[in-house]
Amino acid sequence: MMRRAGVLLAVGALSGVLTELAIVHRPFHLLAVFAGVWVVGASWIGRRTDSPKAAAVHASAFLLGMVCAFYLTVLALESELRGTLWVFWLAIAVTGGPLLGLAGHLTRSATAWAGLAAAGLAGLLVAEAVRVWLGYSTPYRLGYALFNLAGAVLVLGRLRRGARGSAAAAFLPALAAGVIVFTAIPVLVYGGSHLPFQYR
């Protein structure tokens, strides 16, 4: 389990470095606030594991690698870390990694819990797709939105029959929760500067 966690830590680190390098180019600035890779990556890793413990550990390793490498690259390029934003995202990786990994692992079964987990993941992805499409004018916003929508379709489409009923029932509440999350984070963390409808 730990060997695979190390590999995923390295994969996450590579992703973090590439993300920061891409952000340097203005059309890709949304990568700084794009959660789709987190949700899709961590939940897919969790689904591929054989135990809840491994799902939590492996998904956390991936996100920790991503966040640490991202901010180390920022430090290398800018010679400083402005503020303590890196602490917040590190905390999100530590707490969100296990949750996303476990949610992905749960979607393997045919239980109601699998449906609830899938609805939660899909709700987050669709909510962010809508946020990106309506809130930003970057020419690459369609790619961001389609990535999330494809992830949501994949999560829901791979559910077993016994889990589909609970997923359908929980999707709209999960979508509403996703909208709240992607509205609250910019307000609480960035003081509203990363809210939708500001990058026209």
Question: Explain this structure to me?
Answer:
The chain has 200 residues and is an all-alpha fold. It has 7 helices and no strands. It has helices at 2-23, 36-47, 52-78, 85-106, 112-135, 141-157, 161-190. The chain starts with a helix and ends in a 10-residue tail after the last helix. The model is unreliable at 196-200 (pLDDT under 50).
Q: Roughly what percent helix?
A: over 70%
Tell me the series of helices and strands, N- to C-terminal.
HHHHHHH
What is the radius of gyration? Answer: 17 Å
Number of helices: 7
Structural class: mainly alpha
How much of the polypeptide forms β-strand, as a percent range?
A: under 5%
Largest sheet composition: none
The total strand number stands at: 0
Low-confidence stretches: 196-200
Spatial shape: globular
Give the integer mean of the pLDDT values: 85
Distance between the termini: 45 Å
